[in-house]
Specification:
The chain has eleven helices and eight strands. The protein has one domain: TIM Barrel (Alpha-Beta Barrel), CATH 3.20.20. Strand 3, helix 4 and strand 4 form a beta-alpha-beta unit. The protein is α/β, with parallel strands linked by helices. Bound molecules: SN-glycerol-3-phosphate. SN-glycerol-3-phosphate (G3P) binds next to helix 7.
Length: 212
């Protein structure tokens, strides 16, 4: 499973990169809005830092404006992937961008049906939002499993990017289901490393060594 960082914070991205685990970055309008300064400069900086796909979302909701934004976004850097919400107009835009050879990440996916339509339209990635489904009492991981099954049934090449991952168990379940990629905030990435027995074991080794 590829691991992406779900962040627009350059310090978080550099910290994650230093662990050698990050193969891409996903941003969204909320994440970019949290950061100070010129957002395009920041996206350019992120794209230089990361040797892999960097998802950046269109803000417009009208198809013509979404297409214009997408064209501007891909001028920022060659590794920009255009994130487009799965609406009727979003699907038209994904289809159009696919025909022009521009890679897309279909976002705000909450069902396997939406994912299937996005894949048919030519999305490079679909991003099911696990945590937000859990938040409303549904089973976000079930949607990832459904998408995996549908994509395997029909041999679809669109990659499943598990998103809205809130804790280590979401990450593990996504990996067990065979998701192509998972995007995680830095806090979750750091939690993946932690285990109390590792800390206890290390303390014991150091203690025993000090006694020799
Ligand atoms: O970037 C999309 C997604 O990962 C958002 O996560 O935690 O805001 O639901 P969250």
């Amino acid at each position: 499973m590829k691991i992406f960082l779900d962040s627009a914070n350059i310090d978080h991205i550099r910290q994650a990169k230093s662990l050698g685990a990050i193969e891409g970055v996903t941003t969204n309008p909320s994440l970019l809005a949290r950061e100070k300064g010129d957002w395009k400069k920041l996206v350019r900086q992120i794209c230089k830092e990361i040797d892999g796909p960097v998802s950046v979302e269109v803000i417009a909701t009208d198809p013509a404006d979404m297409l214009a934004e997408a064209r501007d976004l891909v001028k920022i850097a060659p590794n920009v992937v255009v994130k487009v919400p799965v609406t009727l107009d979003g699907l038209k835009v994904i289809h159009e961008l696919h025909q022009r050879g521009i890679e897309t990440n279909a976002t705000l996916v909450f069902s396997a049906n939406q994912a299937l339509l996005a894949a048919k339209a030519g999305a490079g990635y679909v991003s099911p939002f696990i945590g937000r489904l859990d938040d409303i009492g549904q089973d976000g991981m079930q949607v990832v499993q459904d998408i995996m099954t549908v994509f395997r049934n029909y041999d679809l090449s669109t990659q499943v990017l598990a998103a809205s991952i809130r804790h280590v168990n979401h990450f593990l379940q996504a990996a067990l289901l065979g998701a192509d990629a998972a995007t995680v905030p830095l806090a979750v990435l750091l939690d993946l490393v932690k285990h109390p027995l590792t800390d206890i074991g290390l303390a014991k080794f150091l203690d025993d060594w000090a006694k020799r």
